[in-house]
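#data-curation
PF: Archiving a pair of folding outputs for the training set. Convention for this channel: one message per protein, sequence first, structure tokens after, nothing in between. First:
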Amino acid sequence: MRIWYPIALAASLIPALSGAQDGRVITLEGEAIPADIVRIAEGKASAEDGREFALDSLRAIIPPEAGGAEPPQAPFVRMVNGGVLEAPSAVLEGERVRFDHPVLGQVSLGIDSLHALALRAPAQESRFDKAIRSAPGGRQDDVLFLTDPEGGEPQEAEGLTESLSEGKVVFDRAGELADAARADLFGIVFAAPAAEGPPPARVVLAKGGTAAGEILGMDAAGLRLRLGPGAEVTARREDIRRIALNSPRLVFLSDLEPAAAGQEPIIAPERPAQMDRSAEGSLITVGGELFEKGIGVGSGSRLAFSLDPSQRFALFTAAIGIDDETGGKGDCEFTVWVDGQERLRQRCRGGDPARRIRVDVSGARQLELRVEAGEDLDLADHADWADASLVRAK
């Protein structure tokens, strides 16, 4: 049963499932349906009880008993398609980077599928961090980040990376080979082509990051995934925390540039909106549920997005709540405004499960998301607009 708000039936709060650890699928429209998916083949996801779901009708598959996930640790690779995988002892030989992943085993990726390789964890908002998080494409040369002898930010050197071994990196600078000790290398941002579009699927793993690519199938042996040309891997079902499926009908707000953004905190410092991260820059997690997409903000925040009616957006959907990084603290109100009219208001407290919401945006020109402080001021109001997306009409 849906709980409708008295606002012209334009918004709804979708009740949480009674068993938070039940397996479930999430439809494109944001509805959670209990289902333990045991097989994927021929464009369908099959549940243990025999029900079938068309993959193109779903946005996510969540296995039963899916717990938390450990964020990827350096060394890691960031792929052009958005995947991020731990890459311990990564080496570059010829045109492929090879490493042993803690869940996927031996992985070999073509260099053209890689956006960056980080051998050390980048300091947040450093040039190295911004380069790794920048959109792939637009570079003629690789950029190597090397230790600054004075102890400052890493120095940048441009060229084409020839090889990376356990001892050193070799790169071509204007036709001349140069090398540096691996110990002095922070990482490399590659001159990779821009992504052609989002990957068909993103798989959040229990540890080691998120694998992105094409689903080849799933059975008792696990989920088979093609990360890129010549790169097929298998993840055991027990190592999967969430399978996110892309659809041409979905547009995630974290992939858009807000038309306007601002924050008016009460006591807490200003926290700029974090795309696909919590307010503190961690994986978005609400009530133990992981989300690979979304926006993390502090209370007092406002984010406005311009909507083009020609895009035929029908719904705004999200899973809202206080991020688990607060340890159960926090109390705030989420409000959704469409063309200047409040359409939904929902209060959330730390420790609550994520609440799925839907708001009608048919024909609208502006969507605004606001978060207001609750009773406990705003010190722990790490609010998540998880899975926030616009859904096109069929």
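PF: Second:
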Amino acid sequence: IQGRMAVVSNPIHFQTPNLNSALEAPAAHTSRSGNFAVLPSVPSGHQSVKHSVASAQFKRYRASNITEEQPLQIAFNNTRIVFDVPPRVVNGIPLAPFRQIFEHTGGKIVWNNYSKTVHAINKTHEIVFQVGHKTATINDQTVKMSMKPFIDRGRTIVPISFIKDALNVTVHYNAKNGHIRIESK
């Protein structure tokens, strides 16, 4: 399916040629409803597919927005941090979920879902930033991030350089093996 919809590179196998014909039709035969494309209806009795078209398109859409070039492993003061959303390098910038790293310092985070704002406090730092904005406040000082923070699977992802500035730590990044070592000063 082409046009405004994603092209799925992996073939999707259907049990009926009618469904394949419907999906191979030009994109003009699809319509839009809000942010979703509406595919032609599937004839009754022919809805068995190996892979869900909607699922394949959603995964492709998400992958096209956030390109994971290389997964990273992060250790803070020689303790490896386990992430539920993996750190990664995107467009040459190492990124990681903020919460797991900050909570490793003993800090607490308050999330304001309405404004998409993170307010983080530990013994020595007060950090405030908003998803989608490059500027942040660290102990009443304004700093600019190299990339706007964004949300991936419920986690706020920030550049590692911001972690360095926000926590006043030393960061050692080995681009060859994807290891990042963060050390308190």
